[in-house]
Design brief:
- By secondary structure, the chain is an alpha+beta fold.
- It has helices spanning 3-23, 61-80, 82-87, 93-114, 178-191, and strands at residues 32-35, 54-57, 118-123, 127-130, 134-137, 141-149, 155-162, 166-170.
- Strands 1-6-7-8 form a four-stranded antiparallel β-sheet. The chain has a four-stranded antiparallel β-sheet with strand order 2-3-4-5, with no helix packed on it.
- Helix 2 (61-80) packs antiparallel against helix 4.
- The protein is elongated.
- The model has no long low-confidence stretch (mean pLDDT 77).
């Protein structure tokens, strides 16, 4: 074995150890980390599909949850004090509760309709750009893994171990699945 291969393996083991220390101590919360080096079921098969592309976070789930909860509260207030709302004047507490809940529901609907997409991942020939701020060279990536947190609505993070640092990418609200992101990384690493 030559020195470069030994150094590479040593770096990979050091990064794996750092990941184990950081992500395995959360096992009390039933989190799950698994190292994923090869992906079998990904929608991407070749480099031309993912080269020079941007992938977005586009979750409107928060707005949908808020609208449903507010609508349920609104219905409860209306049907709970149905007679009282129409018998009393505008000073009624129920009347103001209905107005308040309707206003919040309209703001939620506005947020749902007009929420801007944010760039989660951008790929170039040389770099993976995470959240428009962190640049990672393809050749620096040593290991990848998937970290899931079931208690938070099955939040899925991709852990990217590089020579210098460990990066996390939240794929929960992204148009990319965790497996697709790892496949993109693998396709670019194999090309360089």
């Amino acid at each position: 074995m030559d020195n470069n291969k030994i150094n590479y393996n040593l770096h990979v083991e050091l990064i794996r150890e750092k990941i184990r220390k950081r992500y395995f101590k959360s096992s009390i919360y039933c989190t799950n980390y698994r190292e994923v080096l090869e992906v079998e079921n990904s929608r991407f098969k070749n480099l031309t599909e993912v080269s020079e592309k941007s992938f977005f976070n586009d979750s409107k789930v928060t707005f949908i949850k808020l609208m449903v909860i507010l609508t349920l509260f609104l219905l409860f207030v209306i049907f709970d004090d149905y007679d009282e709302i129409y018998r009393k004047t505008t000073a009624s507490l129920s009347f103001w509760a209905v107005i308040f809940l309707l206003t919040l529901n309209l703001f939620s609907l506005f947020g749902f309709v007009f929420k801007r997409k944010s760039v989660c991942i951008k790929t170039t020939n040389d770099f993976l750009i995470i959240n428009s701020r962190k640049k990672v060279a393809w050749k620096e990536i040593l290991t990848t893994g998937i970290f899931t947190i079931p208690q938070q609505g099955l939040q899925t993070l991709v852990i990217i171990g590089t020579i210098k640092k460990i990066f996390t990418v939240n794929c929960t609200d992204s148009e990319l699945s965790a497996e697709d992101l790892i496949q993109i990384i693998n396709l670019h690493k194999n090309a360089t």
